[in-house]
Structure formats: C-alpha cells, structure tokens
C-alpha cells in the first residue's frame, strides 16, 4: 500500500522535474500578482504593510488554484488516470499522494518565496515568520480542497474558470485565518489561535477531501 | 474463477446503448465483443472494469459483485482502453515500472526489458514516450501483458495501429494466456486467429 | 436492482402526482403571503428607532432562513440521489438550486436596503450579509457545475458531491466569517441587534417563512416536472404524454 503511495508521489515529482516550466509559471504568477498591488495602491509603507497579509494570501490562493487545474487533467487525457482508478489500491491513498506532490511542487515554493515578497511590503521580522508558518499550515488545505474542484471539472468545457467558481468560496476560512494570523502578529497579538485553526482546517481537509476527490474522480472518468 | 455479467444495460445521455447483456466467462475463455461503431463496445468494456456504473445489472467476479470487493477484482484485472495510459515525459521503462508498481506486481528491469523485446521495441526502452510513433506507444502499453499476473484481460482494440509482425506476437501472447487458464475480453476490427478453450461472442446492435 | 431502466417508475408516477400537488402549494403560499403581509404591514407597530424601514425584515429574515434551509434540503436530496442512485432525488436537488439562489439574492438585496437607513451604507461587511454572499457563491457554483456538464448522470453526481462538500463547509465558513467580523469591526454593527421581537412580529415572520416555503415547494415541483420531461424525452411515458397532448 505504501509502495503505491510512494510510486505515485515519485512519479509526479519526476514529471514535475521534467516539466520545470510549469512550476516556474506558478511562482511567477504569485510574484507578479503580489507585485501589482503596490503599483495600484502606492508605495506608502504603512498602507502596504497593513494590506500585506491579505494580498499575500490572496495571491497564494490564486497561484495554487491556477496550478490545480493541471492536477488531474494531464492524467485524464492520456489515460493514466483510469489506470490509477483500476489499480488495486484505495483511490483516496493515491489521491493524497498526488495532492502531496502538487503541494511540494507548487505550494512549498510559494511558502518559501512569500517572506521575500513580505519584505517588499515592509512586514517586520516576526510577522514574516508568522506568515511562513501560516502558509505552511494553511496551503495543504488549499491543495486538498482544490483537488475536489479539479476532479469535479475534469474534461468539462471552461474548467479553469469553473474551478475558481467552485473552490474559491471554500477557501474563505483558510484565507481568514491565514491573513488573520499575520495581522494579529502585526498588531502585537499572539497568532497562536489563528495558526491552530489553520492546522485544524488542514487536518480536516486531509481527512475529508481525499474521499470527496476520489468520488469525484470516479464520477468524472465515467 | 468466473466472470459473470447479468442483464447489463448502459445509458449514455438519454440514449440506451444496450440492454440485457449477460454472459459467463470461465477460465481459459475468450469473449469477443462485436458491434458497429457507437454500439457501445467500449462502454461495455469500461462497465466490466467498474469504471462505468451500469444502469441496470451487475458484474460478478467469483460469485461476488465487483462493487463489494473491488480490490480482489482489480488485482486480477488488466484493462487497456483506447488511451495508452502512458506519460509522455517518462521513458518506456519508467512507464512500465510505474504501472507494475501500481498493480503491486514485483518486476525487475530485466523482466521489463525482455517484455519490450518480446513486442519488438527494446531499442526504445530509454526514450521518452513523447518521441515514439503511435504504433510504438501502443506496443509499450501492450508490453504490460508480458509482466502482469492478472487473470482477466480486457482489451479495447489491442491490434489497432500495430504492424503485421506485432499482431502475430500479440496473438500468440493471448493464446498463451488462455492456455494458462486466463480469460480475455476483446474488441477488434481485425481478423486475427486466437485460440482458446472456449470462445464466445457478444454482439451489440445499435 | 433488476428493474428495467425504462420501468424505473419514480419519474413516471411522480410527474402526474407533482402536477396535482402544485396548485395546492401555490394556494397555500398565496394565503400565507397575504396573511403575513397583512400582519407585517398593517398590524405590526412602527419601530420607534427605525421607523417604517424596519418592516423590511419581514422579507429579509424569512428569505435568509429559506436560503439556508434550501441549501441543506438540496444537499440532502443530492446525498440521497448519490447513495441510492435515484434519479428523481438528483432532479429535486437540481430543481431547488435556482430557488435557493433567488432567496439568497433576495436576502442580500433586502439586507442592503435595510442597511442604508440603518447604517447609511448600501453594503456593510456584516457577518450575516457576508455569509449570505458566500452562500450565493456556493449556489452559483452548484448551478454552474451542473449546467456545464453535458451528461445528466455525471452532472447529477458531480453536483451532489459539490453540494455535500458545501454543506460540510457552510458551518466552518459561517464561524470563520463571524470570527473575522468580531476581530475587525467589533460588535457595534450587527444585524442580530434587530428590534426586540414582539409576538406580532414573530407571527408575521413565521407566516412569511411559511409562504416562502410553500412557494419553494410549488416552484421546485414545477421545475422538476420540466427537468423530467427534458431528461426522459426519449422514454415511452413522455412520448405517450406528448401524443396525448397533440390528439
């Protein structure tokens, strides 16, 4: 069982390695979106640092979502998804492997890049640290929930936009807790509660989302 | 060991593709699924795999519904559909390795190479599948037949895009599978001689 | 489950039954609506703080209730359809979604109309209004997903899964929005601080809610009849029906 989990993980990481441009696109997107706000709002450091938590989280949300549309699409088109469905392994397990690979490739780089952008937004040191922690705890939930949307819209026309419509409302709690954590630390309060709630979101998503994703994949592959 | 289909019906959109399809397939048996284009051959195969839910009817493996115990069934099943299920960015060897590991069968590189040799594409073993031709890709996918321990093979147009020599190789592999007590369900447009302990046909009419 | 597909009788027997039920629910809706409007506009006293403007809650609150109830009912039908592979349940879910979305929209519009005299702004990021807005997004997502999938069976199942995921998320979203709201705005602005509920007001609201409920059932039944005809157009019973109409 673990063998299959590792196989899928290894496979997806290998594929990402051979298609490095896809990963770079996600990161560039994150970078560009978060660099647009200062240009639209003005370079006032006080203003920037007050909007930073929200802006960075929204940018991370959008970047994750854009890469999500590809999570199952390629496997769906070349038939390896139906082979995965026919493997004598629990599909939920394989789904978690795929989502984990996606997070390693698209989520983790965003987490690591975020403090750099936080500097552009004049965030102080401890807020940067909280930002990294919040993203680290929250982005897995984004990948897990997003996978449901990606699975539901497989092969549907206009699936990219549809995923956004389906998934973004579900992202709201993560956005609130994530941005709230950074804002709390900026205001000199403890971000503990926010971070715990983020971790809870991710854990809950880890338990429930793969099941929903597996069911959605079965529906979509019919 | 027995595969039994009982009164299967398949509905696509609001069109009834087929209804009351029943058959029993014993060890060593070969089943041809015949019918015109669009008569639902591929849908029947997908339905037998459990990829598609029948509108009515059930599929039983060794007396148990495949919905009840999917893992036993799937570990005995090898399905090859229209799509090859290969990743373009992986090499032929890597592709075979991944599918073998997913099926939980242990195969070493030597075995995989000899499988590729059997179907005549050993020299493509380390090329990314992206650069192979349609027929070569199909052969990489078919190389799984030399590595699997599955009893039931469900093959959708396995001879399509193959040259005469490969068709012969594949046919003899199918013969061997059936004489080992395996079962095969197949759709094909080619007239290929396959021998089996028992041969039956299901004809779907649109 | 060895029933033949075209003998799958539910839609066939339900179609005429629904047709008979619609007038009843429509009449009930009208009666409750008239009574509810009479109480809320003629009997309920003017609020000394908010004047006549407060009367909008007689529409706003029941609409908000309905928007949430319909989502839950819709998810329940969807779950039933998924579990039992029952087509009729999935059709009911599909039929309820637009009505739910309309009530959500109504709650949003009336909420902002009420907000203008109260807070001097058309839109306030009040926890309840924000939650209603997100609920509207959830409804729209459901409708968009169902309408972009061509195969009705896949549309049903995908929609059902989405509705279930949504129903799990609704309490989490509501809690998070509420938390966000208290953190950012304090409790000074809160729709919960409506005027104290007098007995007449409660009666008015309940009557309006009942009217909305009956309306929902009537409209959902009408819509489900249309969906049935469309989905089962090639089945014998629909053909027989259309022959009967022509002759």
TrEMBL record, chain A:
Location in or out of the cell: Cell inner membrane
Membrane-spanning segments: 21-41, 47-72, 93-118, 130-154, 161-183, 195-217
Main subcellular location of this protein, as a coarse class: membrane
Gene Ontology MF annotations: heme transmembrane transporter activity
Membrane association type: Multi-pass membrane protein
GO biological process, alphabetically ordered: cytochrome c biosynthetic process; cytochrome complex assembly
Phosphoprotein keyword on record: no
Protein's UniProt keywords contain Cell inner membrane: yes
Pfam families: CcmB
Keywords, alphabetical: Cell inner membrane, Cell membrane, Cytochrome c-type biogenesis, Membrane, Transmembrane, Transmembrane helix, Transport
Gene Ontology terms: cellular component: plasma membrane
Family affiliation: Belongs to the CcmB/CycW/HelB family.
Functional summary from the UniProt entry: Required for the export of heme to the periplasm for the biogenesis of c-type cytochromes.
Official protein name in the record: Heme exporter protein B
Protein species of origin: mine drainage metagenome
Primary gene name: ccmB_5
TrEMBL record, chain B:
Hydrolase in keyword set: yes
Official protein name in the record: Cytochrome c biogenesis ATP-binding export protein CcmA
Keyword match Transport: yes
GO terms, biological process: cytochrome complex assembly
NCBIfam families found in the cross-reference section: ccmA, PRK13538.1
PANTHER family listed in its UniProt record: ABC TRANSPORTER I FAMILY MEMBER 1
Originating species: mine drainage metagenome
InterPro entries found in the cross-reference section: AAA+_ATPase (IPR003593), ABC_transporter-like_ATP-bd (IPR003439), ABC_transporter-like_CS (IPR017871), ABC_transptr_haem_export_CcmA (IPR005895), P-loop_NTPase (IPR027417)
Keyword entries, A-Z: ATP-binding, Cytochrome c-type biogenesis, Hydrolase, Membrane, Nucleotide-binding, Translocase, Transport
PROSITE patterns: ABC_TRANSPORTER_1, ABC_TRANSPORTER_2
E.C. no: 3.6.3.41
Residues annotated as domain ABC transporter: 3-204
Enzyme class at the top of the EC tree: hydrolase
GO MF entry, a single one: transmembrane transporter activity
Source organism phylogeny: unclassified sequences, metagenomes, ecological metagenomes
TrEMBL record, chain C:
Protein name in UniProt: Heme exporter protein C
Residues annotated as domain Cytochrome c assembly protein: 14-184
GO molecular function ontology, one term from the record: heme transmembrane transporter activity
High-level lineage: unclassified sequences, metagenomes, ecological metagenomes
GO cellular component, one term: plasma membrane
Residue stretches spanning the membrane: 21-43, 63-84, 96-115, 127-146, 158-177, 197-221
Pfam families membership: Cytochrom_C_asm
Subcellular localization, as worded in the UniProt entry: Membrane
Chief site of localization: membrane
Family, per entry: Belongs to the CcmC/CycZ/HelC family.
Keyword Disulfide bond: no
Sorted UniProt keywords: Cytochrome c-type biogenesis, Membrane, Transmembrane, Transmembrane helix
One GO process term, biological-process aspect: cytochrome complex assembly
Species name: mine drainage metagenome
UniProt membrane topology term: Multi-pass membrane protein
